[in-house]
Amino acid sequence: MVDELAVMIPIAFFFFVYLIVRTISDNRLKRIVVEQQADVTNLQHLFRRPPASLISSLKWGMLLIGIGAGVMVGKQFDGPDPEMFIISSMVLGAGIALVLFYILGHFIEKNQNRQNREESLEPQERDRRS
């Protein structure tokens, strides 16, 4: 427990330092752009938050579920090196989750492309009927 904590504290520290530095630099950049009276379209692009992607959330959710399932499966094995079973089942679970995501993402993307094509054809069909 102490060894794990000794590793996690520096990692968390550097992660939070990175977040603070990034936030400060982003705010400084935005302030400079506003002071120079940049074009409104550039300002809107700069202050806009990126949209949350459902596909990305699905991928990360499936990956973490696969890793968690791998930990649970790995804990069930007893042997000379139980950590090896845990790590290998975590990697196997993550791999299975990513393969399933690839298959599921392919069907989702295909469905979205079909819907986009149907939506783009609807105005053309309306124009022909008029």
Throw out a few tags for this protein.
0% strand; 130 residues
List the helices and strands and how they pair.
Layout lengths: L1 H34 L4 H8 L6 H23 L5 H48 L1
Largest sheet: none
Q: Can you give the mean pLDDT? A: 81
Q: What is the 3D form? A: flat
Q: Report the total helices.
A: 4
Q: Give the number of DSSP strands.
A: 0
Q: What structural class results from the helix and strand content?
A: mainly alpha
Query: What share of the residues lie within helices?
Result: over 70%
Strand content: under 5%
SSE string, helix = H, strand = E? HHHH
Q: Point out poorly predicted stretches.
A: none
- From the alpha carbons, calculate the radius of gyration and give it in angstroms: 24 Å
Q: Termini, distance in Å? A: 74 Å
In short:
This protein is 87% helix and 0% strand. It has helices at 2-35, 40-47, 54-76, 82-129. α3 runs antiparallel to α4 (82-129).
Q: Could you explain how this protein is built, in words?
A:
There is one protein chain. α3 packs antiparallel against α4. The protein has helices at residues 2-35, 40-47, 54-76, 82-129. It has 130 residues and is mainly α.
